[in-house]
User: Which sequence fits this backbone?
């Protein structure tokens, strides 16, 4: 079986490789022969108009949705047929465009959930969680990474939207991902929180490969080394941010789809 | 071959007519589950009330059977609108646990009230003479009532099919079952749709309770007794799958009748066994993942 | 920290009071025994429903399985009661191990229906298997050795009560342990948001199954205790009424805190006892009203009310204290 290899060296596979992903919802093709590869430490942005299939692609990569055809590798492991849980164990972690948290638990408990699944302590039924002091410390440290350590004791249902978005990231970080897929982390977040969000993302360990879906081109430019443009389930272009922003084809798609004024905000 | 034929035609006739009453009782539940996602365990209470009202109209006002059933369906349908406003609207957003608790509570209250007003025994009521007569089908003489219920059921299914497939109301209903938020976004008044669907389902249950009182005797525990069969129909049909519900109801009726006829001792047990296996095997309905 | 478990200060007095019942109400110990049995059953349900969010309407299955297993052991000559209870609990857990993987495939509404239908099936089965269950007459020839070989079963049910209370204590502490572990936290995570749990890499199904097994074990123990202390098992241990009764107790006390199970069982059983003379249909008014009441007052049942009252009074006290210079 063929293994995905990076162009430069035969021995260093990409952190994430997707080849020829296809997905249809009834008559609607949402992923059409998508190729994507993220080297370790990648800072990759995925842009595209609403309904282009960006969230769907994350769902396909993580196993929430079943692909019709194609293959997905994490490193040199073929994960195409693995469950979402197994992919997480291989280091593939995502956040959600629409907050998906544990509303009746506290902020810290949310992170502890992730930590204890990652460490495997969630299987011990009788050991008190209070005795796992390192868990509590790690939880606070993880929260500090996104600046939420002061909210640790609050219930998530009492948390404002911005901090909830930050907690989304904290949950993902607790899992020590090798590949992190961020679905519009800053969407709808007030600018102060968005700044916290972006600087938290920028401070992430540089060996994590990150794919971020984002509409705001200022953020894309600040974050990404590489940008992939997805339109109607197809990859239109993959290039540096500068090249993408000056591309006539990309411009046409955005202007054609209308209402994407944010694209023109670039400065 | 004679006894076999006699047995088979008995099972078919009794099973199908029973299944049709089950369909009337449960179609409203299929609808409310698919549309509002409300676990309305009290649905059978509407059937019980429908039966009691119809029998009351017959016994006190001397109303003819069918007219009484129709009147009762109308009364219960209208009454259910009030109950929907008072109780169910707050349940649409509630957790499934709360829905279960509240509707079980309503079921208890209904049963207790029926007992208080009408006493604990089965309500004495008689079918009109013309339905009690035997009807000669050529190969077999049968009770007219059973044939009448089947005919009525077929007519009702046709009417419902027309309503769901051929009217604006039906199109909206199907759209909302498929995708609620989408339906709301396209300007469908989902709130009103819920009320109408709820009233329709309750009226149908009441009609079933009235028409079927000679098969499912009216007693205070009625809401509990027949809830299981209704839930079996609903879960095998799959949430909101109206088309499947008629077929499944008839199937359940026939299997139940056949089991009781062929295995008088182990009957109910075998039936539940079959349905346990089926529901465990396909918890989201026999046709889940196959329709559309 | 964990809000749900912030009541330990009241727990010690509770157990002391439970012991004191022996002295204060020496002639009501049969009732107290029955309450303790149902409290343990309600705790088991809270583990499945309140903590893990497994919405089951058929938990009598495991209560009944435990009861019949205990009765069968006694009939077969296994007269030692404590090991009988343990074995019966294990039998119930084994049953859950067989049924659980199927039941837990569904969630929410289909789960309710599946557990309900399965419960009815078990009830019918018990009625049909009258050779084993005694059918309508039930099983009453349960002969047991003295507890630990020393304490003879008494007419006044004193040994019975203390025996059940000991199991309730151990079972409750065990359940509390589970809830307080990171496994317990994972269960609450699954209750809140199973999809996200899967995306934290959690083995959701296996977590749920283990919660279900633990719950069935406790339910089986409660059933066995019921059989042993009443020396009788009728098919009604498997009936839907039993499932609904324990559900009402739990939600009345409040789900998800374990304490609610204790409070709910006590209140419900006492009210039921006071209304024992009533026509059973009138009793349904009470259950119906209780259910409507519980949903109307919102989360937390009686324990929730108590917590809200204490929180509010603490706030007022705090405000008054601040008001003074
Ligand atoms: N489960 C589903 N069934 C059918 N169609 C779906 C499903 N999920 C998404 N779609 C459709 O697939 C298309 C792509 O959706 P997707 O959410 O991936 O877009 P997106 O690029 O993330 O858009 P946005 O920028 O709005 O988040 C949309 O047209 C959407 O309506
Ligand atoms: Mg999206």
Assistant:
């Amino acid at each position: 079986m063929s293994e995905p290899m990076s162009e430069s060296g035969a021995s260093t596979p990409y952190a994430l490789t997707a080849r020829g992903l296809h997905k249809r919802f009834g008559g609607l093709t949402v992923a059409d022969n998508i190729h994507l590869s993220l080297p370790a430490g990648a800072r990759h942005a995925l842009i595209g108009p609403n309904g282009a299939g960006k969230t769907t692609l994350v769902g396909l990569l993580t196993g929430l949705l079943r692909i019709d055809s194609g293959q997905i590798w994490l490193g040199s492991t073929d994960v195409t047929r693995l469950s979402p849980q197994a992919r997480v164990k291989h280091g593939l972690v995502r956040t959600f465009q629409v907050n998906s948290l544990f509303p009746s638990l506290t902020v810290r408990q949310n992170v502890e959930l992730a930590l204890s699944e990652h460490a495997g302590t969630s299987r011990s039924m009788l050991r008190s969680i209070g005795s796992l002091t390192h868990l509590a410390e790690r939880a606070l440290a993880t929260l500090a990474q996104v600046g939420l350590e002061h909210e640790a004791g609050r219930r998530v249902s009492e948390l404002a939207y911005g901090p909830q978005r930050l907690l989304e990231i904290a949950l993902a970080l607790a899992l020590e991902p090798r590949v992190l897929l961020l679905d519009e982390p800053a969407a709808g977040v007030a600018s102060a929180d968005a700044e916290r969000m972006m600087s938290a993302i920028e401070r992430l360990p540089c060996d994590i490969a990150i794919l971020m879906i984002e509409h705001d081109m200022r953020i894309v430019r600040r974050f990404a080394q590489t940008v992939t443009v997805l339109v109607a389930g197809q990859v239109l272009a993959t290039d540096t941010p500068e090249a993408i922003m000056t591309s006539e084809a990309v411009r046409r798609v955005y202007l054609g789809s209308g209402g994407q004024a944010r694209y023109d905000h670039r400065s | 071959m004679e006894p076999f034929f006699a047995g088979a035609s008995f099972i078919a006739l009794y099973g199908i007519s029973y299944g049709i009453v089950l369909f009337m009782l449960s179609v409203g539940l299929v609808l409310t589950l698919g549309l509002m996602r409300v676990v309305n365990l009290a649905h059978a209470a509407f059937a019980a009330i429908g039966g009691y009202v119809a029998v009351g109209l017959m016994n006190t006002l001397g109303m003819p059977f069918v007219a009484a059933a129709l009147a009762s369906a109308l009364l219960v349908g209208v009454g259910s609108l009030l109950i929907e406003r008072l109780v169910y609207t707050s349940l649409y957003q509630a957790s499934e646990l709360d829905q279960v608790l509240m509707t079980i509570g309503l079921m208890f209250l209904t049963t207790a009230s029926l007992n208080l007003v009408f006493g604990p025994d089965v309500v004495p009521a008689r079918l009109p003479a013309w339905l009690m007569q035997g009807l000669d089908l050529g190969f077999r003489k049968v009770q007219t009532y059973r044939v009448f219920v089947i005919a009525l059921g077929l007519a009702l299914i046709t009417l419902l099919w027309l309503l769901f497939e051929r009217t604006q109301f039906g199109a909206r209903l199907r759209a909302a079952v498929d995708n609620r938020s989408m339906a709301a976004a396209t300007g469908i008044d989902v709130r009103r749709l819920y009320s109408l669907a709820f009233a329709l389902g309750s009226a149908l249950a009441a009609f079933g309770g009235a028409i079927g009182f000679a098969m499912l005797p009216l007693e205070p525990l009625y809401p509990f007794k027949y809830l299981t069969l209704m839930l079996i129909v609903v879960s095998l049909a799959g949430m909101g799958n109206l088309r499947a519900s008629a077929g499944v109801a008839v199937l359940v009726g026939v299997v139940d009748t056949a089991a009781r006829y062929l295995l008088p001792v182990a009957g109910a047990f075998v039936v539940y066994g079959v349905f346990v296996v089926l529901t465990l095997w396909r918890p989201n309905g026999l046709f889940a993942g196959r329709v559309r | 920290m964990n809000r749900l478990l912030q009541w330990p200060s009241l727990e010690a007095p509770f157990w002391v009071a439970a012991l004191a019942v022996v002295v204060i109400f020496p002639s009501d110990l049969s009732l107290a025994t029955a309450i303790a049995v149902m409290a343990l059953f309600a705790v088991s349900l809270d583990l499945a429903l309140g903590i893990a969010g497994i919405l089951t309407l058929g938990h009598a299955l495991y209560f009944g399985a435990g009861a019949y297993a205990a009765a069968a052991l006694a009939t077969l000559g296994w007269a030692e009661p404590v090991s009988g209870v343990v074995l019966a609990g294990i039998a119930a857990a084994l049953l859950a191990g067989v049924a659980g993987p199927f039941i837990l495939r569904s969630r929410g509404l289909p789960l309710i229906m599946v557990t309900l239908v399965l419960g009815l099936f078990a009830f019918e089965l018990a009625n049909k298997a009258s050779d084993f269950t005694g059918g309508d007459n039930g099983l009453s020839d349960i002969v047991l050795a003295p507890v630990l070989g020393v304490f003879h079963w008494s007419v006044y049910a004193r040994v019975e009560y203390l025996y059940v209370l000991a199991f309730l204590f151990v079972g409750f502490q065990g359940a509390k342990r589970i809830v307080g572990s990171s496994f317990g936290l994972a269960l609450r995570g699954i209750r809140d948001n199973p999809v996200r749990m899967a995306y934290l890499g959690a083995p959701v199904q296996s977590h749920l199954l283990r919660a279900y097994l633990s719950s069935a074990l406790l339910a089986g123990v409660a059933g066995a205790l019921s059989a042993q202390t009443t020396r009788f098992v009728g098919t009604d241990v498997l009936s839907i009424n039993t499932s609904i009764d324990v559900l009402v107790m739990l939600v009345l006390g409040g789900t998800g805190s374990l304490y609610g199970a204790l409070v709910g069982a006590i209140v419900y059983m006492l009210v039921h006892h006071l209304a024992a003379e009533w026509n059973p249909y009138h009793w349904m008014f009470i259950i119906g009203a209780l259910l409507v009441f519980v949903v109307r007052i919102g989360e937390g049942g009686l324990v929730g009310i108590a917590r809200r009252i204490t929180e509010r009074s603490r706030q007022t006290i705090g405000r008054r204290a601040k008001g003074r210079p």
